[in-house]
Structures are given as structure tokens and as C-alpha cells.
Write a structure and sequence with these properties.
The relative contact order is 0.12. It is elongated, with a radius of gyration of 24 Å. It has an eight-stranded antiparallel β-sheet. By secondary structure, the protein is α+β, with helices and mostly antiparallel strands. The chain folds into three domains: 113 residues, DNA Polymerase III, Chain A, domain 2 (Roll), CATH 3.10.150; 111 residues, Roll (DNA Polymerase III, Chain A, domain 2); 39 residues, no CATH class. Helix 3 packs across helix 4.
Length: 301
């Protein structure tokens, strides 16, 4: 049986790059530093996990007679080597080593048995299909506010709400709150999931690559899954309850005002600000007061 396969350097490098934040995170198991390679007659499957988030990626292979071959390679080491190579790379799988050849360069890596790799989630139940660019825009509106090491664990994540009328992403750091919602997507039942900060940021990176036009949202073994044509991204969920925030969103006592975004951004860049709504010369205005003596008024509709 032929024990070799070939793949383009750029193709493999992009897959390995997406897995570096996962396989480089220190965990209680050193095996999470490895990436699992699974070669089939039609595709190469890569898997990485840090026991909190996991990523499965695939890329097509042609003319391969290496059905079912599995092995583990150091994720950081193989990434560094592939980054220095170019063009088409030939891989030869041995009992304890993996040989890489490309344009006169021969390199070898030690491999481990795939049996040592942690169990990977299987049997995904897809719930909803989303437009990737739209999901990315929603994440961009709230992800920046997720705290990193808040004493309240529930605040170190993003609440994803899906119901009969809308989908919403909610984040708070205990002082500010951001909520992005849309009526474009909904489910027949109400569901909520609390995603860890790392999962949100890694998902955002995957969507920013632009490889997927559509993504599926699903569940698998108690985890939340985002799937594209060539990837499955799994994340465990935070168990702590997210703070009750809906009373903050009640607007019965609020007076609304609109302002020109460019003017507000310009004033914000001048320094720390505080704001209030008031009336001036019989015209409702929105005032942004800079801490100090400077103030600016903007017409409001």
C-alpha cells in the first residue's frame, strides 16, 4: 500500500494556522499540544482541541491509497516547518516518523498514536443556517466588551439567545452592556447558550477568513457547534447563569435622541467623555461633555 500523499503548502498552512491558538494553550494533558491527522482516499482531516474548544478542518486529496491512516504530530512544530516550505509537499507516513519533502528539502517529524488523542465530539445536530458575514457583523458589535478575567465567571462570555421572534448576542462587563439582535433568524423554541470568551474570539477569526459563505449552528454532546463547508468548530459552554439584564433594556423612562455618528466619534476620540440629553434654544440636543472644560453640542432628531 502506498503510504504517501501530497498537498499544497498554502492550503495546509492556512489549516494549521487556525489551530495554533488551540494546540498552543497549556492544559492538564500534554497530548492537546498535538494535531490529529486522518488521511482518507478523498480528504485530509485535521483535529485540534484544548478540552474547552475544538476545531475539525478538512481539505480534498486526490489519488490517495492511504485509507484510515491516523497519527499525531506536534501542532507547533509541524506549523513552523510547513511555514518554511513552499509549493507542493509530499508526506510519507512511517511507523514512528513523518517525512516531508518539497523542492529538495527533506524533513522528519516524530509522530504518536492517534489512540492517545482525547475523544472528539460526534453526531452534530444542526439547528439553524446563518449567513457568515451577518454573523460576523453581530459578533463585531459585542465581542469587544467581553471581560477576560472577571471574578464573576458568567461575565467572561457571550450569551446567545434564540427564540421564536429573534436571535440576540448579549455581553456585559458589569458596567456596560451590549446587545445585538436580529429578527432574520429564529427557532420554534427558546434556547440560550453562554459561550466562553476564547470561543467567541476564535469563531470571529474563522469567519473573518471569508472561506465560508454560510455556517450552521448546532449542538453536539452538550457543546455548541458552528460548521462550514470545511470546518466544525466546537465549544463547551459556561455553566454559571448570565445576569438578568432585560430590566436594563426597558426604555419607558428614556427620552430618545439621534446624532451624527461622525461627530460623536470625533468628540469621543478627544478624550474620556460623559453624555446627557437636554434642551437648548428650544431645540432638543445631545451633549457630550468632556471631563474638563470642553463641551460640544450636536443637533438631535
Amino acid at each position: 500500500m502506498n503510504n504517501t500523499f501530497t498537498i499544497e503548502q498554502k492550503t495546509l498552512l492556512s489549516l494549521l494556522a487556525a489551530m495554533q491558538p488551540i494546540c498552543n494553550k497549556r492544559t492538564t494533558l500534554d497530548i492537546t499540544e498535538y494535531i490529529l491527522f486522518h488521511i482518507t482516499p478523498r480528504e485530509l482531516v485535521l483535529k485540534a482541541t484544548d478540552l474547552e474548544i475544538s476545531l475539525r478542518s478538512t481539505t480534498p486529496l486526490d489519488g490517495i491509497d492511504l485509507d484510515g491512516a491516523k497519527f499525531l504530530v506536534s501542532g507547533r512544530r509541524v506549523f513552523e516547518l510547513i511555514k518554511e516550505m513552499d509549493g507542493e509537499i509530499e508526506f510519507t507516513v512511517g511507523e514512528s516518523q513523518l517525512t516531508l519533502k518539497s523542492r529538495g528539502v527533506d524533513l522528519s517529524l516524530n509522530i504518536r498514536s492517534a489512540e492517545d488523542f482525547p475523544p472528539f465530539p460526534e453526531r452534530i445536530e444542526n439547528l439553524l443556517q446563518l449567513e457568515a458575514s451577518f454573523m460576523l457583523s453581530l459578533l463585531g458589535k459585542v465581542a469587544f466588551l467581553i471581560p477576560q478575567n472577571n471574578s464573576n465567571t458568567a461575565l467572561n462570555g457571550m450569551l446567545l439567545e434564540l427564540g421564536k421572534e429573534e436571535m440576540a448576542l448579549v455581553v456585559t462587563d458589569g458596567h456596560c452592556l451590549a446587545r445585538a439582535q436580529t429578527s432574520e433568524y429564529h427557532l420554534d423554541k427558546d434556547c440560550t447558550w453562554l459561550l466562553p470568551r476564547r470561543a467567541v474570539l476564535e469563531l470571529k477569526k474563522i469567519l473573518e477568513s471569508g472561506e465560508a459563505q454560510q455556517v450552521f449552528l448546532g449542538t453536539c454532546s452538550g457543546q455548541l457547534v458552528f460548521s462550514g463547508p470545511s470546518f466544525n468548530f466546537f465549544t463547551k459552554l459556561l455553566a454559571d447563569p448570565f445576569p438578568e439584564y432585560k430590566t436594563v433594556m426597558e426604555k419607558d423612562q428614556f427620552r430618545s435622541a439621534r446624532l451624527v455618528r461622525s461627530e460623536a466619534v470625533t468628540s469621543e476620540r478627544n478624550g474620556p467623555t460623559r453624555s446627557l440629553v437636554g434642551k437648548r434654544q428650544r431645540q432638543t440636543c445631545f451633549a457630550i461633555w468632556r471631563i474638563g472644560s470642553c463641551s460640544r453640542w450636536f443637533p438631535a432628531n
